[in-house]
Structures are given as structure tokens and as C-alpha cells.
Design a protein that fits this description.
Structural class of chain A: alpha+beta
Shape of chain A: extended
Largest interface: A-B, 39 and 32 residues
Largest sheet of chain B: 8 strands, mixed
Distance between the termini of chain A: 61 Å
Number of helices of chain A: 16
Number of strands of chain B: 10
Radius of gyration of chain B: 18 Å
Strand order of the largest sheet of chain B: 5-4-6-7-3-8-9-10
Oligomer: heterodimer
Strand content of chain B: 25-35%
Radius of gyration of chain A: 31 Å
Strand content of chain A: 15-25%
Distance between the termini of chain B: 56 Å
Order of helices and strands of chain A: EHEEHHEHEEHEHEHHHHHEHEEHEHHEHE
Number of helices of chain B: 7
Strand order of the largest sheet of chain A: 5-6-1-7-8
């Protein structure tokens, strides 16, 4: 079963978290009232006055002249989204963000051992989300993402809608065709034919539907039957790898700075290795005494994991950095994390993935210099006791 | 040890490296040299792993024989690289020390840069021991190449031996964790007048891992053909 968790638009939640007094007011997000633009999100009070997402701000102001108009705080919105998903991720790693803002899916399979009673599980989800982003979510539970989202749209706070798999068709039957993700032409065509509910679609056989509306419309037909072939794509919490070192007393010579940078590179490398990741961007922040922080960024052509690679990249940049005052702290952060896929097989070897096999190393040296550079020697037992006859030299 | 003290030590070690306080109890991995007297002399039970050990001494003092004996001993355990700058390595002599020649890679470079690049690549690729047999003349450019090599050696937990006839550069002496100075006390002859070995006197000139200043003297027999 899949739970669909619906919360108000994350931009609204972000605005409420910033200014709790806005909770009971008509709030329109998208820009100031005198600006040109469209409404991104509107609170319930604003919607009651006729404000809808997508309308122009001018129209919104005419509909709700006393509403509060604000631009969207994009970073805060992203934080709210991430916090909601992280909260759900703590319950089950099979969590996904929906395309529509404010919706998230959580797969409930496998949680029965911990929460045998589904009602208790849903209450726990509500409690955690409430304590995380300070809004009460509504939940719909069904066998597929499509049906669970429809259930969530029809659920009320503290009253989740649960659609058992066997009841899916019956639940969908009375719903209008508006709930299906179909284009305007198909919608009109269906209405012309008198097919206004999902039950009417369910009554048609699949081959007949296909003959009439084409293969592309079959997806909508399947959804009307409760069949959703989309796979839940799990969301993963962002991985932050950062190391910081206070410098007490502050330092002003580059030798000591390099030494510390190398130690931090080692720690970053350990964290990357533990997660099987590589980084393509290292950000260094040097906090200066009585001066602004100095930022250094080093990009890499491919994801690096090893201490040596990281330090070799940042060392020349540190030496060139124009340090104006003694440094109080150095922070090294690994950005643009990618799977260390190039190195994955090597992670199973001794040390780390950067180690190449001895045979590869020999071949590389011989190719770079000459075949006789690396040799192996063997003894010929039957040869005369002269060194040049007895010892057989061969390129390794 | 209290947590706060340990934290303070970690901060100092991060900042000052080897100059920071560290435990008096040695805790350094070592690779046995195959010579019991030498293992006792180093104070850690052999050549330090991941570090540079310098074998110094005049020609005929026995340092190269000791290095080759260590190479032979290590070849029985894993891959060994011998960077032979003078081009004088005798595999037959090594085989008499029971060296596994199948695991021995002999690099004959034309210059220091080539030899150091080979050492770096092979150390990183998993060689257990790399022995650098330097030319008699002073090796120009060694001081610039050595830090890069030492990083790789430390990362790959490889043992690095450096055999040098000439007086070692300041850089080599600085980077070496262990410096052993060898001196030949006497030749050992058999009854029939054949040369059977050397009496070697070794002094620990520098030791970052255990107490320096130790001395030892022992007879090192040449292998019988």
C-alpha cells in the first residue's frame, strides 16, 4: 500500500514558519500586489475569496484586496520540501516527492512489523509531520500512487481515507473524469460520448477503448481501473560532507595551512569512501581574523575520492589564495557528490578504489617509458656459471 | 585518557603533525627485515611501514647486502620492487637468500625522475616493499621527488628503503623516519681463506618511531653458492 501525504503548498508553509501571524490571514504568494506575475500559492482564506493558483496578481488583488501579498521564498520552500521528505524518510526509506507541490508518497509495505495497526502508523506520520513543519497533513492510502493521491485529496485532517485494493474500482467509479491526467481534446471527446465518470470508462472493454481512443489514451483507461504503472522513485536525503578545523591561535603561514588542509582532505576522503561517493567540487572557506571569509573553489574533471587527489587539487589554490589576515578556521566541503562508480570495483580492494593492479601499473610504466624499464629475472639452472648466461632478464 | 585531553591532542596533531605530543608507547607497523639483530635495533621490530628508511654508510659497509636480504625476505611475503639505479643487482645473489624471484620487480631507470615515477606508481599499485638503490653520485632532483613518493608510500602502506653510498642530502635525512649508519668492522674468512661474511656495526642515527642512538654489531654471513 502507498500513502499519499498532502500538506499545504510548501511556499505557504515556509511563509507561515517565518511569520506565524500569517496563518490566519488571506495570504497570496507569487509577488507583491502591484507586481506583474501570477499566483504561485494561496491560503485557504484567500481561496475562499476566489484567488487561485495561476491567476494574475492583479486579478488576485481585485478578488482579495485585504490579502497579504508576498514573493515566494524559494530557499525556504526547498527547505520545507526537504524537511517533509526527510521526516517521512525516517519512517521508511521508500519515500518519493510527487510532481505537485505539497504531496509526498510513502510506501507502507514492510512497516507492518513495527506498526501492526495501520491507524497507529498513520497517526504517527501525522504527528511527525506536524512536529517537523508545523502543519497537519491529510493522508490517503491505496494500492497505487494515483488512487492514494485521489484519496488524499478527499481526506480530512485526522480522518485519512483508506482504499483497500479490492475496493479500488468501486472507489474510483463515482469520480468524474476530471481526475484523470488527460488533455483537453480527449476530455471533451469523452464528455461528448457521455463518459463523465470513471465508472463509465470501467464499463468499456480495453480493446474497445483502444479502438476508439487510440493507444495513447490507454494510460488514462488503466488509471480509471486503478492500474498505475508508475514506479515510486525513492528520494534520498542529501549527503553533506564537510570538515572544519578551528585554528587556535590563528595561523598566517601557508605551510601550516597546507598541513591542516591535508588532514581535512583525509577526513573528507574517509567520508566519501564510506558512502561510495566522489566529489567534483571542493569548497574551502577560510575565516580570517578581522576580515571577511575567503572562499576557494576547486573543480575536478571527474569525481575524486582519494586524499591525494583532493589535496593535489586544493593545494595550488591555497598557495595562490590572497590571505589578508591570520586564519581562525578552515572549512572544507565536498560538493557535487556523485557515485564513485568509476572506483566502485576498487573499493573492494585493499586501501581504496584508486589502487590499480600491479600488472596495470607495470604496463603503464612500460608504455610510458620503455618495456625494459621494469623487468623480472629468473635463473637458468642448466646454463654455464656466467652471469649474462645464467640470469634471464625479461620485461615484466 | 579523558576525552578533552584526547580532543586537544587531536587538534595539536592535526595542526603540528609529528611535532605534536604523541603516545610514548610505540604503535607503528613494521616489516621484519629478516635479520633479528636489525629488527631489535630499529626498536619497532623491523623497517617502518609507510615511511622512508635510509641505509647509509661507505662502500663495502654491508648496507646493500642488508637491503637485499630484506628484499629477499619481503619477496617471500608479497611483491617487492628494486629500483636499481647503478644496475648492479645480482638476482643470483638474491636467490641465495631464498628470494622469490617471481615476486621481484627490477626497475632499471635512466634517471632519477624515471626511477621515482616508477617507485610511486608501483608503491601505489600495491608493492609491499620498494628499495631504492641510488647511484653513487649525488642524485639531483631527489629532494623534489621525495615528498610525492612519500605520500604514495604512506597511503599504500608500503615500506621504502633507500640505499645511498654518498652522503645523504639534507632533504633525504629530513624525510627519513629511520637512518641507520653502517660500518664494516671486519671481514670474516673461512679456514680455506674464502670470504664468508662481514662483521657489521650499525648505529641508529635518527629514529622518529623509537629511541635513536642504539648500536649493534653482528656477523652477516654471505650466502654459500
Amino acid at each position: 500500500m502507498i500513502a499519499c501525504i498532502r500538506t499545504p503548498h510548501p511556499s505557504l508553509v515556509a511563509a507561515w514558519l517565518t511569520a506565524p501571524a500569517l496563518r490566519n490571514q488571506a495570504l497570496v504568494l507569487g509577488g507583491l500586489a502591484n507586481e506583474r506575475g501570477t499566483v504561485i500559492a494561496a491560503s485557504e482564506q484567500a481561496r475562499a475569496l476566489g484567488v487561485r493558483e495561476g491567476k494574475s496578481l492583479n486579478q488576485a488583488q481585485q478578488a482579495a484586496p485585504d490579502a497579504v501579498f508576498q514573493p515566494v521564498d524559494t530557499p525556504a520552500t526547498a527547505r520545507v520540501r526537504a524537511r517533509l521528505l526527510a521526516t517521512l524518510h525516517a519512517i521508511s526509506p521508500e519515500v518519493a516527492a510527487a510532481d505537485e507541490p505539497g504531496y509526498a508518497f510513502l510506501k507502507l509495505d514492510g512497516l507492518a512489523l513495527r506498526w501492526p495497526n495501520r491507524r497507529q502508523l498513520l497517526e504517527e506520520i501525522v504527528r511527525r509531520v506536524e512536529s517537523s513543519i508545523a502543519v497537519q497533513p491529510v493522508i490517503g492510502v491505496a494500492g497505487t500512487m494515483f488512487v492514494s493521491k485521489l484519496a488524499a485529496d478527499r481526506a480530512e485532517p485526522r480522518a485519512p481515507v483508506i482504499v483497500e485494493t479490492a475496493e479500488t474500482r468501486a472507489y474510483l467509479g463515482p469520480l468524474p473524469i476530471d481526475v484523470l491526467p488527460i488533455d483537453k481534446d480527449l476530455h471533451q471527446y469523452l464528455e461528448l460520448l457521455g463518459l463523465r465518470t470513471l465508472a463509465a470508462l470501467q464499463a468499456i472493454s480495453r480493446p474497445a477503448f483502444r479502438r476508439q481512443f487510440g493507444i495513447k489514451a490507454l494510460e488514462a483507461y488503466d488509471l480509471a481501473l486503478g492500474i498505475d504503472r508508475r514506479r515510486l522513485r525513492p528520494w534520498h536525503p542529501p549527503h553533506r560532507i564537510e570538515e572544519s578545523q578551528p585554528l587556535e591561535p590563528p595561523i598566517d603561514d601557508t605551510q601550516a595551512l597546507q598541513f591542516i588542509a591535508r588532514a581535512l582532505s583525509e577526513r573528507i576522503s574517509e567520508s566519501l569512501l564510506a558512502a561510495g561517493l566522489g566529489t567534483r567540487l571542493i569548497r574551502i572557506v577560510l575565516d580570517q581574523e578581522g576580515a571577511g571569509p575567503l572562499r576557494v573553489e576547486v573543480g575536478f574533471a571527474y569525481p575524486v575520492t582519494m586524499t591525494g587527489e583532493i589535496f593535489d587539487g586544493i593545494r595550488p589554490r591555497l598557495l595562490k589564495a590572497s590571505i589578508a589576515a591570520p586564519l581562525e578556521r578552515i572549512t572544507v566541503r565536498a560538493g557535487r557528490l556523485e557515485p564513485g562508480y568509476v572506483r566502485q570495483p576498487g573499493l573492494l580492494l585493499r586501501r581504496d578504489g584508486f589502487q590499480e593492479s600491479l600488472a596495470d601499473a607495470i604496463a603503464r610504466l612500460q608504455e610510458e617509458y620503455r618495456p625494459e624499464l621494469v623487468q623480472r629475472a629468473s635463473l637458468r639452472q642448466d646454463a654455464p656459471p656466467l652471469p649474462d648466461r645464467r640470469i634471464l632478464w625479461k620485461p615484466a | 585518557m579523558p576525552d578533552r585531553l584526547q580532543e586537544a591532542i587531536t587538534v595539536l596533531q592535526t595542526r603540528f603533525g609529528s611535532a605534536a605530543p604523541h603516545s610514548a608507547q610505540p604503535d607503528h607497523p613494521a616489516r621484519p627485515s629478516g635479520i633479528a639483530e636489525l629488527d631489535a635495533l630499529t626498536g619497532i621490530g623491523g623497517w617502518p611501514v609507510g615511511r622512508l628508511s635510509l641505509l647509509a654508510g661507505p662502500i663495502g659497509s654491508g648496507k646493500r647486502t642488508i637491503a637485499q636480504r630484506s628484499v629477499a625476505s619481503a619477496s617471500r611475503e608479497g611483491s617487492v620492487v628494486y629500483i636499481d639505479f647503478p644496475g648492479r643487482l645480482d638476482p643470483e645473489f638474491l636467490s641465495r637468500f631464498d628470494a622469490d624471484l617471481g615476486r621481484l620487480l627490477i626497475v632499471r631507470p635512466k634517471n632519477i625522475r624515471e626511477g621515482m615515477a616508477s617507485a610511486r606508481v608501483l608503491a601505489r599499485a600495491g608493492a609491499d616493499l620498494v628499495c631504492l638503490d641510488l647511484p653513487r653520485a649525488r642524485a639531483a632532483g631527489l629532494d623534489a621527488e621525495l615528498p610525492h613518493l612519500l605520500h604514495r608510500v604512506a597511503e599504500a602502506t608500503c615500506t621504502l628503503l633507500l640505499v645511498q653510498d654518498a652522503d645523504a642530502d639534507d632533504a633525504v635525512r629530513y624525510y627519513a623516519s629511520l637512518i641507520l649508519a653502517f660500518q664494516r668492522s671486519a671481514f670474516i674468512f673461512g679456514r680455506d681463506g674464502d670470504l664468508e661474511g662481514l662483521q657489521v656495526e650499525a648505529t641508529v642515527m635518527k629514529n622518529r618511531l623509537a629511541a635513536p642512538g642504539r648500536r649493534a654489531r653482528w656477523v652477516m654471513p654471505y650466502p654459500i653458492p
